[in-house]
Amino acid sequence: MSCGTAIVTGGTKRIGRALALALASDGFDLAIHYHTSEVAAQALLAELRGMGVRARAYRADLAHSDDVLQLIPRIQSDCADISLLINNASVFDRMSFLETEPAFFENEFAINLRAPFFLSRDFARFVKNGQIINLLDTRIRSGDPDYFAYSLTKQALYHFTRLAARELAPGIRVNGICPGPILPPPDGSESELQDYARRIPLGVPGHPEQIVRAMRYLIQNTFVTGDCLFVDGGEQLI
Ligand SMILES: NC(=O)c1ccc[n+]([C@@H]2O[C@H](COP(=O)([O-])OP(=O)(O)OC[C@H]3O[C@@H](n4cnc5c(N)ncnc54)[C@H](OP(=O)(O)O)[C@@H]3O)[C@@H](O)[C@H]2O)c1
Predict the structure, then answer these.
(1) Which pLDDT value is given to residue 139?
(2) What are the tens digits of pLDDT across the range 87-128?
(3) How far does the centroid of ligand 1 lie from the alpha carbon of residue 40, in Å?
(4) CB–CB of 8/86 below 8 Å?
(5) Which of 28, 37, 203, 227 has the fewest Cβ atoms within 10 Å of its own Cβ atom?
(6) 40 vs 48: CA distance, rounded Å
(7) Atom number in ligand 1 closest to CA 41
């Protein structure tokens, strides 16, 4: 029996893809959002359908509010049983405070905060019983000055998670996951990730499967809302 349709933004690659595949194996149908990864989206759809679930892909540039505002209604018109929204899509750009220009600031906030804000609002307008999971970052604890605006977007998304959990209870639970070093940035290398991870308490990078486990816990534990799970090898402690 289907668990309803799960929406995963930025769901074609890396952590989003791992979450989508896990959701399919748990019995969810999938609405996969992507922006530039058309080829990866088509490959993932074939894999998901091979697992016996329904799967569709939706292109949207989350930097543009028109695209954001159309996305949930587009999905809703195809899938009447939406039950889960995973706000996973994100940009992660290095920029110091003194070098930050308004266009850069606006792009980071549009994709990392404005998009999940309005996708969650629209989800809550359609869905009476469901849940939202926001992908945050262990950097919400103390921020990272090398990723100044990015850190602020995730800190704001953390506060949004808690406020939305209050506002949308009891029908919709809203939680977050705060990954530490899991995968190198798309333009980074595995050795840079290993070097970074040596400085955190557990000394090694994590794996997308550990984010999958956090997601499954949040989905299954119906008494948890407004929480944020750190899956970061102890990075929040330093
Ligand atoms: N990787 C880590 O170790 C790590 C650490 C801490 C936090 N996180 C958080 O965990 C989540 C997943 O991480 P990740 O590294 O797997 O993410 P990622 O690969 O950096 O990005 C995921 C997707 O976001 C989409 N995206 C970027 N700009 C977009 C735009 N303008 N419009 C629509 N979609 C856009 C991209 O879709 P397309 O490819 O289709 O363009 C991309 O595939 C993110 O929220 C991230 O902040 C990850």
Answers:
(1) 96
(2) 999 999 999 999 999 999 999 999 999 999 999 999 999 999
(3) 14
(4) yes
(5) 203
(6) 12
(7) 40
Q: Residue 87's closest CA among 118, 59, 56?
A: 118
Q: How far is the CA of 211 from the centre of ligand 1 (A)?
A: 14
Ligand 1 centroid from CA 118, angstroms: 18
> 6 - beta bridge partners?
30, 84
Which ligand 1 atom lies nearest to the CA of residue 15? 16
pLDDT digits (tens, 9 = 90+) for 127-186: 999 999 999 999 999 999 999 999 999 999 999 999 999 999 999 999 999 999 999 988
Q: With residue 78 as reference, give the H or E element that holds it.
A: helix 65-78
The yes-or-no verdict on residue 1 having pLDDT over 80 is no
Q: Which residue, judged by its Cα, is nearest atom 19 of ligand 1? A: 14
Cβ atoms of residues 19 and 44 within 8 Å:
no
* CATH class of the domain comprising 5-231: alpha beta
For the chain, the 3-state helix, strand and coil shares in percent, each to the nearest 5, are 45, 15, 35
List, chain by chain if needed, residues with CB within 6 Å of any ligand 1 atom. Answer: 10, 12-16, 34-37, 61-63, 88-92, 111, 135, 137, 179, 181-183, 186
Give CA 110 to chain center in angstroms.
14
